[in-house]
Write a structure and sequence with these properties.
By secondary structure, the protein is an alpha+beta fold. The strands form four sheets. Strands 10-12-7-13-11-14 form a six-stranded mixed sheet, sandwiched between helices. The radius of gyration is 23 Å and the shape is globular. The N terminus is likely disordered.
């Protein structure tokens, strides 16, 4: 029979032929299982494979007035760096950092997290590597990875492409919520060092790298490693450190420094009539930040409103506790310093002076 006269019933099409491999997805779940188990908290009910993750909320009876907090986010175009380098075991750490460090600024303890990975083709080993990073981040944050979804989107994403996002839920005692209503004139800003670029501004960074003719595999003497290794440095997970800080000293507010940069994010936790002056001379941004500026001809103010400039988290604390806060964080391996003070003025934050020199 001529091909043109074949009827639809003569053709046999499967889901796999269309581009979705269910068996590969099942293998991916099997490979990731051991990493998910490492995040288990006592409140988790059941295991991997259910339609929904279960978390025993009876522990919340110990709270006088428990408030649930939630946050959702992704890692943006940093995934393009992981894909270009074919290194996928750290990008999950970035996801956790972006989620739980948003959550903890109100004083909430992260309880559990779910993830969503969309890809052009399920490669079980690659998916397992991504989930391994997510699990390691959850362990660092003290929260459980209770569920997730891996979706295969052939035709929408190329076989080597993927994106990931997630959501996390935490709890805080109503009387202990941190925020703008606690901030007072004279409060001191304690800055916590970032591990690098974290997961923001990569549209700008990738544009600069591309236009400057730089390659990810080139060794950059000023960085002491390849450019790709520097760009893929995982986001620092501050959750446990911030909770310890809130328990140990009089913290009034915290700000996670993400998209929008240092000043814009700190301004989000300032009440009307107060401003925060941050002194640039108290720290020296890591070299990657100034290299982006030099390679791309990016003005300082543009860098500052796009990148974290070496500060990943800021705590506004009672001035009497400022030195204790720095010491507590140092004991936990977090480089921290007094970077500014809250003053009477407009509801804003700004940077003064010039950056210190290393």
């Amino acid at each position: 029979m001529p091909e043109s006269s074949a009827t639809p019933g003569d053709r046999r099409t499967s889901y796999a032929q269309a581009g979705v491999d269910i068996e590969a997805g099942d293998r991916a779940v099997g490979l990731m299982r051991e990493w998910v188990e490492k995040t288990r908290r006592p409140e988790v009910v059941g295991g991997v494979g259910g339609f929904a993750g279960l978390f025993d909320a009876s522990a919340l009876r110990d709270y006088r007035r428990p408030l649930l907090a939630t946050s959702t986010d992704g890692v943006g175009t940093k995934v393009a760096i992981a894909q270009a380098l074919d290194k996928h075991d750290t990008i999950g750490l970035d996801l956790v950092g972006m989620l739980v460090d948003d959550l903890v600024v109100c004083g909430a303890e992260p309880l559990f997290l779910t993830d969503y990975i969309a890809c052009g083709k399920v490669v079980p080993e690659r998916i397992a590597a991504i989930v391994k990073g997510i699990a390691e981040g959850c362990v660092q944050a003290g929260c459980a990875l209770v569920g997730g979804e891996t979706a295969e989107h052939p035709g929408l994403l190329q076989p080597g492409e993927y994106d990931l996002a997630g959501a996390t839920t935490g709890v805080v005692e109503a009387d202990d919520v941190l925020g703008a209503d606690r901030v007072r004139p004279g409060d001191v800003a304690v800055a916590m060092a970032s591990s690098g670029l974290h997961s923001n501004g990569f549209v700008l960074v990738r544009h600069v790298v591309r236009e400057a003719g730089r390659t990810l595999d080139e060794h950059v003497d000023d960085l002491g490693r390849t450019l790709g290794e520097e760009l893929l440095e995982p986001t620092r997970v501050y959750a446990k450190d911030c909770l310890a800080l809130a328990r140990g000293v009089d913290v009034h507010a915290m700000s996670h420094i993400t998209g929008g940069g240092l000043a814009a994010n700190v301004a989000r936790v300032l009440p009307a009539g107060l401003e925060l002056e941050l002194d640039r001379s108290t720290w020296t941004p890591p070299r990657i930040f100034t290299l982006v500026g030099e390679w791309g001809g990016v003005e300082q103010l543009e860098l500052e409103r796009t990148l974290n400039m070496g500060v990943g988290m800021v705590a506004l604390v009672n001035p009497a506790d400022a030195d204790a806060a720095v010491g507590l964080l140092a004991a936990r391996g977090i480089h921290a310093w007094i970077a500014g003070k809250v003053l009477a003025g407009e509801e804003s934050a700004h940077l003064a002076g010039s950056y210190g020199q290393s």
